[in-house]
Amino acid sequence: MKDCFQKHLRILSTVVIVILFSLSLWQLASAGWIQGKAMVAQQLLNHSWQLTIDDQANTHNSHRPWPWADTWPVAKLRVPQHGIEQIVLAGDSGSSLAFGPGLSFAGATPDSGGITMISGHRDTHFNFLKDLKINDRIYLQTRAGGVQYHVESFQIVDSETFRLPNDSDDRSLVLVTCYPFEAATAGGSLRYLVRASPIAQPPIPAKNIDQRLPGTGSGLTAE
After folding, report:
1. How far apart are CA 129 and CA 164, in angstroms?
2. Cα of 119 vs its chain's centroid, Å
3. Is 54 among the domain residues?
4. For the chain, how many structural domains are there in total?
C-alpha cells in the first residue's frame, strides 16, 4: 500500500513539474513574441518615417507602416538627456499608443498655431516623463522641419474636468501620460502633463535635423 502511494505521488510530482515547465516555456515564448513584434514594429515605423521625410513633394501622403495600419508617422520625438528617440503616430487612440506616442487630433501641429499635445502610455513609451527636469531639451522633428523646446513645468490634472486653453498664439508642446506612474491598475482619470516652450531659433530643415541636434544620430531606438 505504501509503495503504491509513493508511486502515485511520484507520478503526480512529475505531472506538476511538467505542467510548471510547460507554463514557463509558454511565458518565455510569449515574452519573446511581444519583444520580437515590438522590434519589427519599430523597424517598420522608422522605415515609414524615412519615406515621409523623403517624400517632400507629396505633403499629404501618409506612409503607413503596414498595409492595415490605421495610423502613420507624423513626427519624431527626441530627448537626448534621457536617451529617447521615438516615432510619433497620428492620433492618440489605443491602437496608435500600442506602438508609440500619438499626436492628438484635438491639438495643433508643431508648424501651426496652438498647443501641440502628444500622449503615451506611462508604463512604456512615456515612462521617462517622470525623470524629466525643468529646462531639459526636447526636439520634435516633423516633415516641415525641427522644433526645439525646453521643459517649463509639470502638472497633475483630472482629465474629466481639465481642458487645455485654446490659444492660437501659444505654441507649447504638452506631453501627456496617465498618473500615478506606479499605479497597479490602469484607467484612472489623473494625467501627468509636461509643458515645454519653444526655443527661438531658425527652423532646422527636416533632412538636416540629425546632423544639427546634439545627442542624435546615435542609433537610439524607442522602447
Report:
1. 19
2. 8
3. yes
4. 1
Quote the pTM value.
Answer: 0.73
**Tens-place pLDDT, residues 50-93:** 888 887 656 666 788 888 889 999 999 999 999 999 999 999 98
Is residue 1 included in any domain, yes or no?
no
Reply yes or no on whether the pLDDT at 33 is more than 50: no
C-alpha torsion angle, residues 198, 54, 68, 125 (rounded to 10): -30
> Is 19 within the bounds of a domain?
no
Where do the H-state alpha helices sit in the chain? 2-54, 94-97, 209-212
Distance CA 50, CA 185 (A): 36
The three cell numbers locating residue 163:
481642458
pLDDT digits (tens, 9 = 90+) for 163-194: 888 777 788 999 999 999 988 777 789 999 99
Question: 127 in helix, strand or coil?
Answer: helix
Range of the domain at 129: 45-212
Q: Say how far apart CA 163 and CA 60 lie, in whole Å.
A: 29
3-state SS assignment for residue 12: helix
Is 137 domain-assigned?
yes
Looking up residue 133, the CATH number of its domain turns out to be: 2.40.260.10
